[in-house]
């Protein structure tokens, strides 16, 4: 029996898709600011491919976390379709495979543009998207989920998009990728802190489970605030707008850090998750605008 559209939308986790969009937007701003022409079809294919990888990752996570007992009726996080019985794990996994196939197809034009490096990045990205919670070495269950997000939803996403436009990567693309990746990791870290008690019961050894609540709160604070400190890099490089404009997002960072530091993990953390998504979106847009504005200046 086919699942209703409402259930599929819930399964896709629309609020998380910002993590796929922001890196490409930032990279596109950096391309223009660096004096290179923006090839819009590259940015379009890059962002749509990334979105399908993100959705596929979410679906695999939904199905496998339920199978492993990480998602139960005691869950305090947002509703999951497999755990709540809205969809079967088989349906959800079929959706994930479809998304990975779409990401692969959308990546073909990018491979034709960028060659072998893009083949390697694309295949590894899709493999680890499944391996985030699936396979013999699930990253999220080994405490490596945070690193995965920084690398693939930050560094690689920005640097690859920049490379496709320019045929090279540089320190600027790495710093921009690190800023974006850190903010994406805030979402994962909040989620893991909220779910730590249940995760510990099923052997899901996230960093919050391995090192405790204090460490998790410190991680969230560091990941939320460090991207602002990295603005010093842009200032020193003469990209003043890229250093200043993201400060407009600082209020979101303050509220997230204060919230997770003063409240015990529980349902209220879902509010902080939404704030962290807003933080990444606003910071990313301001950074992209600041980078874009550099074009034509010394």
Give a description of the structure.
- There is one protein chain.
- The protein is mainly alpha-helical and 298 residues long.
- It has one domain.
- It is built from twelve helices and no strands.
- It has helices at 5-12, 18-33, 40-68, 89-114, 116-131, 145-166, 171-201, 207-229, 231-236, 240-244, 250-262, 269-292.
- The chain is globular, with a radius of gyration of 19 Å.
- The relative contact order is 0.14.
- The mean pLDDT is 90.
Task: Please name the defining characteristics of this protein.
298 residues; 12 helices
List the helices and strands and how they pair.
Layout: H1 5-12, H2 18-33, H3 40-68, H4 89-114, H5 116-131, H6 145-166, H7 171-201, H8 207-229, H9 231-236, H10 240-244, H11 250-262, H12 269-292
Give the count of structural domains: 1
Q: How many H/I helical runs?
A: 12
How far is it from the N-terminal to the C-terminal residue, by CA?
61 Å
Multimerization status:
single chain
Order of helices and strands: HHHHHHHHHHHH
Structural class: mainly alpha
The geometry reads as globular
What is the count of β-strands? 0
Radius of gyration: 19 Å
How would you sum up this structure in a few lines?
This protein has 298 residues and is mostly helical. The chain is 73% helix and 0% strand.
